[in-house]
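// run 5 | inverse folding | seed 20
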């Protein structure tokens, strides 16, 4: 039964429209409480990984059978909410109140789910060459690991000075390790990679075409020349290749130098140079001039 509406006077209370003293008002409340003394909600169990934090208007704790475990009674008005331990977070809602009919009322869709470990992915180990003008140290630009936490706040680097994006490193190898800590769960992830500083050398020319010979036939002014393109390799990788002409270019009569130049990350370079020689076919009405053919190619 609902409690009567109460209103204050200086020293009186109005209970159910009838004025009474404070003692009479307390007595009416006590009578209602006595009627609910035998009402209790059943035990409430938390979802997996969580625990319940409960508050009760009247904590009724008694000894179990034969003086065993203590028994806690959930009287009407008791409220329980779901809590999650370190490393877990609450998803959804979980808040239950014991009703006057002895049934739990409220939302119990919440559950405790584990915080994910922070994401951390290191770049691959790298070889870095000394630049042509370097002697025993070189400038190395580091790529940061990929992560979903704050670089400044949650990432620890060993050695500590390697947290800079640009370093001056000597010849040799260095191992760099990163540890990411989740700001809430405190879970960590780690990764490492190596930087190898090596002596510089230009790219190697693995293949360079021989001199190509073509003849202009009939009344044509040029001929389309094709060739297999040069191949370069490098100890740290070729980053760019420039060329003076591409296969399929039209050339007129004469000798034409074709130049390919490869560059690596440290700005070392090497070239492949070969010739395209274009002659004109002999014709009865035109005096023909035969160019001398030099079978050569160049590397430098």
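// decoded
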């Amino acid at each position: 039964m609902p409690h009567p509406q109460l209103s204050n006077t200086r020293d009186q209370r109005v209970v159910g429209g009838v004025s009474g003293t404070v003692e009479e008002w307390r007595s009416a409340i006590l009578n209602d409480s006595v009627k609910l003394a035998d009402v209790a909600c059943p035990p409430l169990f938390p979802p997996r990984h969580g625990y319940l934090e409960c508050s009760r208007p009247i904590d009724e704790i008694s000894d179990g059978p034969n003086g065993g475990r203590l028994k806690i009674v959930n009287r009407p008005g008791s409220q329980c909410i779901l809590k999650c331990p370190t490393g877990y977070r609450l998803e959804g809602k979980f808040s239950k109140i014991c009703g006057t009919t002895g049934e739990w009322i409220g939302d119990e869709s919440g559950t405790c789910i584990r915080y994910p470990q922070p994401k951390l992915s290191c770049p691959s180990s790298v070889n870095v060459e000394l630049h042509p003008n370097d002697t025993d140290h070189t400038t190395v630009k580091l790529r940061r690991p990929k992560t979903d936490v704050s670089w400044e706040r949650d990432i620890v680097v060993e050695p500590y000075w390697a947290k800079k994006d640009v370093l001056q490193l000597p010849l040799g190898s260095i191992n760099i390790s990163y540890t990411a800590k989740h700001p809430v769960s405190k879970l960590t992830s780690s990764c490492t990679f190596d930087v190898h500083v090596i002596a510089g050398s230009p790219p190697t020319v693995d293949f360079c075409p021989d001199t190509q010979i073509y003849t202009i036939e009939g009344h044509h002014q040029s001929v389309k020349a094709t060739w297999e393109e040069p191949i370069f390799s490098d100890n740290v990788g070729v980053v760019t290749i420039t060329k003076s002409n591409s296969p399929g270019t039209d050339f007129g009569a004469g000798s034409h130098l074709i130049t390919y130049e490869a560059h690596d990350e440290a700005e070392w370079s090497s070239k492949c140079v070969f010739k395209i020689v274009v002659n004109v076919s002999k014709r009865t009405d035109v005096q023909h001039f035969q160019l001398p053919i030099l079978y050569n190619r160049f590397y430098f």
